[in-house]
């Protein structure tokens, strides 16, 4: 007889099979799982057989960590997460890593943001592991410099964050990971050339870098299907990405002071040329600004096979020529998403300086009849000041619809862009736009400051 949470007076959860209890305890930190041993004799050793360990030893006594590991009795670890500092704990950290490897951990996660220790290097046994399938390392003090041969023969997903690795070290890692399918390099330093031509199983690559982390200047990845590239300061050349079907280029260019005359032709538009087989494309605001300059300078655009296009940008006049030209060269476009994120942008001062350097009159450039918004900069300013934001956005959407021939769906994701009244007004206008253009127009609202696309795992 079941009464409440008990079966004949016995705690219902305690009556569950060990496999289910292990699954439940795998979702909480190991410290919390250990506390369940005080509930009853039934729970005394359940935690010790749970095949997932999550240890935070930033404040814990190393001896207590050793004691915890000594009680662990599961024959295999499916997941091991270690969050630690390195100061005065290197031996303990190395011991935890060795413990995870000796228990054939399939998922290994190492997290430390301790900048007091410089140039920490993993021990050699870290690089010889035939069981790990997912490896995540996040540490500002780790230098991935294998002194031995790397052998990660089962590794499929590798994520490195805030690590330092050279081109030579990276080649060692790649050659020792023959089954690698997914690679993330987030704010990693010192490597320059990313040659993935020998990684035949690699399908997904994500690179994110800031002003402090230069990242690669060249990418060779002929087997890649999905690319997510976000960085600043230096342009990145896509040498061979011939198998790409999905790409996200949200690249930030801080200023144009050092830009040479051939920059647009050989870098920004060249990146588009390398994406001619991509069917799903996401482009950020500053990349659109650079495309605008390319369009105004008369740089020819490649014809793209893109069917799904997402533009992550603020609606500002400096992105308009780039969007207009891009839509013209995507004749098979079926779905267009405008994501009105608040993002960094190149100042109009720098944009106009660039145009002047190329002997172009900025007033005439922005007055181009090919623009989604015909008229001068002053005309756009008047529209923004005299009309509600909803009217301006509706006008923008209307002109975009007229710039495309094959579009079936337009989605507008608004992030903190309109108040409630303006949103309702835009919904009403969208209904009219949808009816007049035979295109499904969807308006969605989001309060998230920034939302980025993610690739499927």
Automatic annotation (TrEMBL):
InterPro entries (alphabetical): F-box_AtFBL13-like, F-box_dom, F-box_plant, LRR_At1g61320_AtMIF1
Database matches in PROSITE patterns: FBOX (PS50181)
CDD domains in alphabetical order: F-box_AtFBL13-like
A Pfam family that the UniProt record links to this protein: F-box
Residue ranges occupied by any F-box domain in the UniProt entry: 10-46
Protein name: F-box domain
